[in-house]
UniProtKB/TrEMBL annotation:
Any GO BP: signal transduction
PROSITE patterns: IMP_1, IMP_2
Alphabetically ordered keywords of this record: Hydrolase, Magnesium, Metal-binding
Domain of life: Bacteria
Reactions performed catalytically: a myo-inositol phosphate + H2O = myo-inositol + phosphate
Pfam families: Inositol_P
Gene Ontology MF terms: inositol monophosphate 1-phosphatase activity; metal ion binding
Protein name, UniProt field: Inositol-1-monophosphatase
Amino acid sequence: MLNVAIKAARAAGAIINRAALDVEAVRVSQKQLNDFVTEVDVASERAIIETLLTAYPQHGILAEESGNEYGSKTSEFVWIIDPLDGTTNFIHGFPVYCVSIALAVRGKIEQAVVYDPTRNDLFTATKGRGAFLNERRIRVSKRTRMPECLISTGFPFRPGDNFQNYLSLMGDVMQRCAGLRRPGAAALDLAYVAAGYTDAFFETGLSIWDVAAGSLLVTEAGGLVGNFTGEADFLEQRECLAGNPRIYGQMVSIISKYSKFAPAGEKAALRQAGIDADNADAPVEDADAQAPEGSAEGQDSKD
């Protein structure tokens, strides 16, 4: 099954690389604000689905562009596909994007492929058998101190995203680490955690096809993956934290209060801190406006 997934990923990568030679000619449409899809996404997804269903016609498919339109609706084997993760990068010619394919068996991820066609980097994992980059075993980093760590993230870009909340979150992390990066392709971000290139990754608003393959790469490379509060059942919760075990624990202590699953008290304290910060930044008004009605200061100023 892993070999079939690799064949599918390489077929998609060939389509992407051909299109990248003249990216200006690629037709682009917009699903919603700042969320793009191209004819390359669609062609790449079609090539992946054809390859998988030719080998396993009874399997199910869950794909970013076509949903569960193809394959069996009742199979215990479901392929989870992102045909081009990092579309915004791709249409600008920024060479950070990938193909992501995972196989879930009875809801658990068992096979994973993340393929970077620009570098010909192939990340693979099978549950219980380790993670590999171009057939060489990879492990998460050994760093244990946050000030030495390089951490990746993704910025909120959809309407309704709480941008101010994310700025506070990033501020908390940036003050504690060596550097924060925003490459723009979550599946590749997770693969880089697995390879030890970065020490942790966090992002909200992610769909299951963004994180399914990358999450298995991380765990098979000795890392941990969960939501911001550290719970492992995160695949459909739209928030993801990954890292080597020591840094993962430290990241949970920093960002758990920003989780939608955080205790109510922590959320209230965070909101209050935001209000206090807003008040501190507010312009100082004149004495008349600040003085309570009927106060001595107010009377003096009126006199």
